[in-house]
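Q: How would the structure tokens look for this protein?
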Amino acid sequence: MSKIKNFLLLANPYSGLKKGEEIVQKILPILNKHSINPNILYTEHKGHAKEICRSNFIKGYSDLILIGGDGTFSEAINGLLLREDKIYPNLGFIPGGSGNSLMHHLNILEPERAVQSIIENKIQYLDVVEITSENFLEYSINIVGWGVATDIGATAEKIRWMGRSRYTLASLYHILKLKKRHAALTLNGAKQEKQFIFILVCNTQYTGTGMQAAPNAQLNDGMFDVIILNQNISRLELMQLLPKIFTGEHIQSKHVEYVQTDTLKLEPRYSEALNIDGEIKLSTPISLKILKGILTYYHY
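A: Here is the predicted structure in token form.
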């Protein structure tokens, strides 16, 4: 006898191009046709998805369909993993953001196609990166960036009105600045201390708007992929390297280190903010570890 499922559809109407409600109306008939009749909630403010997923309200649902961008998905997952009961619903991801890094990784960029994975009821495990420091605990399913990777994210957020091109423009600006930072980085038990331009920890292959930062990343391999750009690169070389991030060819550069690991420790000389799933927050130093297969989600 199959288990009865109870769906909650949580949509962010402000994400991306603010088409959350339109997407709900587009996919609802498809879900209903297959006897999936979710309760529908819309987020009302920043952090609302996290609040809902952390509350007792979520306990009655076996499945959670999320409509939004990477920020909405990240909020929801942080709320779930902070729950004391450790009971997590199956997750269905529907693209509704501007960057859609997770959906690029899944190669599902159309809401109608994303719904099909839910209808077909194929479940896979999802790794999550746990980020800890003295004063905080956070979770990431996409990226954790430090250095220029954070600078680019912060600038891109300020020019959000420019749409998809904002990441390219922000990248060009910070290439010209080429700020270097000193830090101690521990990977796979080995510690290196030097200057870095950026360190990017990826759980997904993509970041930004279709940038294939970590072409070897998988969502359930028990590892995260670390991309390190060292100090010995010129502005011209970095300018030439930038376009290659859209195809993943950048990892072949002599200036790029590409490492897979399940733990990492970053201790910069100065405390600075991080780019966590597209949001600029928290601060260093940090320790990271992978939580292998802690969540489940619908995928082909």
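The first strand starts at residue 7 and ends at 11.

DSSP finds eight helices and 15 strands in the chain.

Upvote if useful.
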